[in-house]
Amino acid sequence: MQLTAVSNQEEHSAALDRITQLWGLPQITPKQSNELEMLVSLVQEYEAEHTPIPLPDPVAAIIFRMEEQGLTSKDLAPIIGSQSLVESILNKTKSLTPTIIQRLHKSLNIPLDCLSQQYDLSN
Questions:
Q1: What is the CATH number of the domain that holds 76?
Q2: Does residue 111 sit in the same domain as residue 62?
Q3: Residue 71 near residue 86, CB atoms below 8 Å
Q4: Where is each HTH cro/C1-type domain found (predicted)?
Q5: How far apart are CA 107 and CA 75, in angstroms?
Q6: Which residue of 15, 42, 103, 120 has the smallest Cβ count within 10 Å?
Q7: What is the mean pLDDT of each run of 10 residues along the chain (123 residues)?
Q8: Torsion of Cα atoms, 22 then 26 then 30 then 36, to 10°
Q9: Whole domain around residue 87: which residue ranges?
């Protein structure tokens, strides 16, 4: 089988169908294994270019990083300014300011483009 770059949705669907077919085989030959590996790479390349992953909500990213690092809202108070401000931000009653965005980026290593996104506040 001659493999070429996946360049449109039709080719993407065909490549996914073939990957599914190969994965469903009870045994796979070395040639099929190579084909599978190449198809997966071609599909990943196409998806990376044509199906960007949206950035998470800024507050969700902060909460995720807190959980990941075992932090509590009290741990963020020195970074953000006060415990009440931390709670207001996490409850989405106050927005992130440019200063807080910079501090969170530096302290928690959350990407600036994620933290700088607009998001809806709770009423």
A1: 1.10.260.40
A2: yes
A3: no
A4: 66-113
A5: 11
A6: 120
A7: 87 95 93 95 93 90 97 96 96 96 97 94 83
A8: 20
A9: 58-115
Q: What is the pLDDT of residue 1?
A: 58
Domain presence at residue 22: yes
> What is d(CA 65, CA 106) in angstroms, rounded to the nearest whole number?
13
Supply the DSSP string of the chain, one letter for each residue.
-------SHHHHHHHHHHHHHHHT-SS--HHHHHHHHHHHHHHHHHHHHHSPPPPPPHHHHHHHHHHHHT--HHHHHHHHS-HHHHHHHHTTSSPPPHHHHHHHHHHH---HHHHTS--PPP-
Number of domains in the chain: 2
In a domain, 29, yes or no: yes
